[in-house]
Amino acid sequence: MDLPVLDPTEQRVLGSLLEKERTVPASYPLSLNALRTACNQTSSRDPITDHDEATVERVARELKDRGLVRIVWAATGRRTLKYHQTLAEELSLTDAERALVTVLLLRGPQAPGELRSRTERLHPFADREAVEETLRRMAARPSPLVRELERRPGQHDSRWVHLLGPVDEGVAAPASATAAADFESVLAEGADARDDSVRATYGTVAQTYADRFTDELAGMPFESWLLDRVAADAGDQPVVEVGSGPGHVTAHLAAAGADATGIDLTPAMVEEARRRFPEGRYEVGDLRRLMRPTTSDGWGAVLAWYSLIHLAASELPDAVAALARPIRPGGRLVLAMHAGGGVRHLDSWFDLDVSLDFVLHDPATVRAVVEAAGFEDLEWYHRGPFTWCGETTERFYLLATKPG
């Protein structure tokens, strides 16, 4: 069969639909507004676009006429048109092929290592070799879907490009692409390797970290006020802190009257929390697999208090979507993180040998990700570092409400 030839806007629309069908299935098919937001995301997209609603609607209807998009009515209180891609069906894509096509449509030419890390939530490739095997199978089709680009001077790996329309192959990456690559450097060895490094590092420093930070809120009136407010707003609805570390933030919420639970990726940190706050509830868990509480239809608030600071920018949309799913309508999402740009690496922490990367996320990008996840009534706060306790980065706090 002949492959469809897609212009850049058509590529963005179909890539966004392919992505969201996998990452936010509860919100799929997409409304026109959600599709526009997905197309114009400032993370996991290259280049960044600013398509207006009329353009997205026109392109989606043209794709419908070509049999690549289906438009359906959805009854959500009022009848709403929603958009569903049929490209994967038209091309008879396997799950692995579909994941690679999605990311290539959204981000242009990429090396196999980049593709493996960026497709993790779409399809889990076992290793880099599995990505390369799939790419070569796609290139060997009667109508090839991808092509390997010639390696340029200074490049360690060959990049691959889709063949569904014109793509800027880029002789040299622009400054914006270089900055984006810095945010992705934490995934150089893959997400699993990064998670192992985070778990090992916090396991190594758990006791010293807890000694240092367990009492920090006593000197932070703004943070204490914010947590007290979250506890009060939640009322009798359960609250969870993901990435709870030594447990002091969860304990503060509980002391403020919240039915609070702490979850952390590192068993040693959970042990510290249980030892220091034996009356609290602390469990080992991954924020990307957060479940609903057993005592309610959803969480009254989910707090990611400095727990997204080791994720690449490309991982934020899926992480926020995972946190959003178990929040009850009207519940809150609360984020705290380092503000800025780029990645800081530590080889030593508390005089202990470690290997850990901290990602300083751009507040505007974070707000856009939260809005794209469907949250409303965003409010945010930005402060400078407290030198009295050794802070060296600006801090960013965001609250948002899940629509009722």
What are the SSEs and their pairings?
Blueprint: H1 8-23, E1 30-31, H2 32-39, H3 53-65, E2 69-75, E3 79-85, H4 87-90, H5 95-107, H6 112-118, H7 128-139, E4 146-148, E5 160-162, H8 175-184, H9 191-213, H10 221-234, E6 238-242, H11 248-255, E7 259-264, H12 267-276, E8 281-284, E9 299-305, H13 316-324, E10 327-339, E11 343-349, E12 352-359, H14 363-372, E13 376-383, E14 394-401
Parallel strand pairs: 6-7, 6-9, 7-8, 9-10
Antiparallel strand pairs: 1-3, 2-3, 4-5, 10-14, 11-12, 13-14
Features:
404 residues; alpha/beta; three-stranded antiparallel beta sheet; 14 helices; globular
Q: What would your notes on this structure say?
A:
Helix content is 39%, strand content 22%. The protein is of the alpha/beta class and 404 residues long. Strand 2 (69-75) and strand 3 form a beta hairpin.
What class do helices, strands and sheet pairing give?
alpha/beta
Indicate the low-confidence ranges by residue numbers: 171-181
Please state the overall shape, judged from the principal axes of the Cα atoms: globular
- Contiguous helical run count: 14
Distance between the termini: 46 Å
**Main beta sheet:** 7 strands, mixed
**Alpha carbon gyration radius:** 22 Å
Q: What's the β-strand tally?
A: 14
Mean pLDDT: 91
Strand content: 15-25%
Helix content: 25-40%
SSE order: HEHHEEHHHHEEHHHEHEHEEHEEEHEE
- Strands of the biggest beta sheet: in what spatial order? 8-7-6-9-10-14-13
Task: Give a quick summary of the entry.
The chain is 39% helix and 22% strand. With 404 residues, it is α/β, with parallel strands linked by helices. The strands form 4 sheets. The protein has a 7-stranded mixed β-sheet, with helices on both faces. A 3-stranded antiparallel β-sheet has the order 1-3-2. Strands 4-5 form a two-stranded antiparallel ribbon.
